[in-house]
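Q: What would this complex look like in 3D?
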Amino acid sequence: MHLTQAIKRACQVNGNGLATINGDRRHTWLECRDRVAKLAGALRKLGICDGERAGILSLNSDRYFEAYLALPWAAAAFVPINGRLAAPEMAYWLNDSESLALFIDQPFVGMMDDLKPQLETVKHFIYVGDGETPDGMLNYEEILTQADPVEDAGAGYNDMAGILYTGGTTGKSKGVMLSHANLMSNTMNCIPALNFRPGMSWLYVPPMFHIAGSVAVTGVTMVGGTHVFVPAFEPTAVLTALQDEKITDLLMVPTMINMMVNSEGAGDYDLSNLKTLSYGASPMPADVIRKTVELIPDAEFVHAYGQTETSPLISMNGADAHRGEGLKNELFKSCGPVVMNSEVKVIDENGQEVANGTVGELCVRGPIVMLGYWKLPEQTAEAVRDGWMHTGDGAFIDDEGYIYIVDRTKDMIISGGENVYSAEVENTLYQHPAVIECAVVGVPDDKWGERVHAIVRLHEGQAVSEKELMDFCHTLIAGFKCPRSILFREEPLPLSGAGKILKRELRAPYWEGQDKQVH
Amino acid sequence: MHLTQAIKRACQVNGNGLATINGDRRHTWLECRDRVAKLAGALRKLGICDGERAGILSLNSDRYFEAYLALPWAAAAFVPINGRLAAPEMAYWLNDSESLALFIDQPFVGMMDDLKPQLETVKHFIYVGDGETPDGMLNYEEILTQADPVEDAGAGYNDMAGILYTGGTTGKSKGVMLSHANLMSNTMNCIPALNFRPGMSWLYVPPMFHIAGSVAVTGVTMVGGTHVFVPAFEPTAVLTALQDEKITDLLMVPTMINMMVNSEGAGDYDLSNLKTLSYGASPMPADVIRKTVELIPDAEFVHAYGQTETSPLISMNGADAHRGEGLKNELFKSCGPVVMNSEVKVIDENGQEVANGTVGELCVRGPIVMLGYWKLPEQTAEAVRDGWMHTGDGAFIDDEGYIYIVDRTKDMIISGGENVYSAEVENTLYQHPAVIECAVVGVPDDKWGERVHAIVRLHEGQAVSEKELMDFCHTLIAGFKCPRSILFREEPLPLSGAGKILKRELRAPYWEGQDKQVH
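A: Here is my prediction, written as structure tokens for the whole assembly.
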């Protein structure tokens, strides 16, 4: 259970095969291992080794991939930074994790004036972009060339491989500590379910800072496959890469798949090499499945469900659910049975397991459950009890073990594949002096699946426009978290007997006549 | 990483599906779990729980399978007993492991008069056969019916699940301690390589006391498949079960496959459900592969290699190596690339890793490496260094990561799938007063692959016949270990500079013009 074992296996079974393709940059597995061992050597010289952490703030690239493997090679841990965050949020992740270094890509250099003064522990900035290296930064290729390759430091099993931050349900981000064994257990679950196999080539489309975006790093490496990178999602770039690099497998969120299959000229690309199209974050509408099958008749779908705390995949639903009877019976709306080496159960409010078909909170136990939340022992003890991770998701399990997610206890909105925690947005709105009461809910949106919608009541006699309030949010939190629509109301928000805002009631009028498709 | 997780998953995904078929006895997964939980309750009442051990001396059966799962359910460990051993050998395994109980099947009842007086720790005998329960034994079904089901005790990860004895290279058996994590890691490796999947049904043919015979216990259970048992290998019984129970997958040794395909009327059976035929212990002759393909055109072959100390599978070579180019290029003679989640390397006499293509000792590192040898810390430290299990097998790895086994440093003979350690047989021969010097080697045998052959020099003036010496061995060790042929010679055996008998030289004339097909 060493993350670095994957790269050694790749060298053994496909040493001269292509490891990474990033535009014109191509490296074989033997070259890739050499680069990783050199980068680890460079990191070690900088003191980034043996339990220390480094952040990665980058678009998808081969250098992201190498850093993701070199840090564990040096027995350090990676801290992927969500590139869409506002500077204060990024600073919180880097300071909280006490990261010593930051890998930084070209598009984020402009933020540095704002970000740098807020950083407390980062001493080294390693520039992974192309073109001239900004002042005060180390050049990635230079430090790599100057370093001697080092032996794998031997980190593994319960050693921490990374801290992955999630938006916090109580408004503050929590760092999820994942071990080598966590990530390798997830990998072993993915190999059969996502059909990882020799000769495959994987395209990275969702951002690699999401754990779902990086799920292939170890799995595709283990089988000696090829990793292909596009910097970020853009339909034409994805279609071009699928065709030109003969991509066989990838993962996207339904929003992206929908945009891709509906983009102009999609039918003109040769997508015949594509075998498996995985998706997560929400179920895929049947129409999108049908439309995708028209475009790529041989592709098989896998609907995956998970969360960062479970490394991440809890369940996967394969090809059979997406064709013939499965499609007709809407079996694809389930996120499938539990992965091979973990357990799931659904519990009621008293912690008792419920019967099949009954909705309750989904709990997961097994080697995929995180080490805990970084420096938050109380929140860890609350989330993981007796080895069972309490997901916060409402779900039921049918008689064949198929899991259906029906609600999120944690009150999360998934908008275009991004998780938005209502509490975090509400806390931001409450900081505006005019706001006396607010609730943030997900409402249906044709493009994003769900849209962040706020319902706001103002102090008597105060006034603020929708635009003013949105602009206010943009100064404090990432753009994707900010409300895209605001409803002002004068009467108090509806409360439960226990005094909690009845979100279900607020949501209901928006969802009338629609499935609430949450995952 | 709980062995018992497999049975819970089976209940969740296929609760009403068939778990076990043993002649007329059939149980669904929900019934099977209930029986396992009750048997664990009965064991707990007898004190066989929480780290204690129990032996299993039985032909293949559903009860063997249940005991194999119920012992870990009670946080105890199983000690499978090789049914072909002589009574003193069985007693050694049971006494050494300090087993408190013995599950015993009908064919072994006759040995009890001999065995029982030699046992030091076994207090309970649990009869798993049919018909009347012998005096002084508990009836399996009775204790199960009378017990209350108990909750899974929660053993997992590095807790010991079993002690599996191997013949010792220095003549004495060693108990290999395997943990829950060991066996579950092996299972996760097998799922993709052996294509374990929902809807499969597995036939147990080699004895379950071999770790290879029980490799399917957790894997087929995890996917909710069906386990079908025949008591022991017999061509017609196997062919009948394959047809009548619509078996999809099984593992045999090449000797068995050869006997089956050559048995009279083999072509009259409907074997069309068979998908994957795995084999181990030795490579399969190309003729046997071709003959098997004639009989079962759609079956795919997997050549597996491993040892008890590695839980057991180190590498697997799949279907591609057994057809078309793979067959032509004899790629099937390789035992394949390393399993997914472990590492292999080949080292020279100084412990240095050698280049591809160079023969040396094969070493394995990863979660499949045993906890150690039971009560033998020195031998454990000798075998496992820095996490690397030193297999004792001579091998080379090619540029595509394919492993070829060329010699066994541990001097082992594989005869009809049974491991015979030369040293053990030699030690036995040396106990005869007439023997001054001897060497035991494997020589080619049409039926058994290899045959146990002894080369013996007698004390001057002494005489003993081949038959007398064979009979002498039969009183001390299992029949399958006894020499099947003996060559008497008068000149001293050839020695190396270091004074070791030159076995290679003794073996050479027998193997002239033949591949030494060892695995």
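A: To summarize the key features: Chain A touches chain B at residues 1-2, 5, 8-9, 12-16, 184-185, 187-189, 191-192, 196, 222-224, 337-338, 340-344, 366-367, 397, 399-401 (CB under 8 Å). The mean pLDDT of chain A is 91.
Q: Very helpful, thank you.
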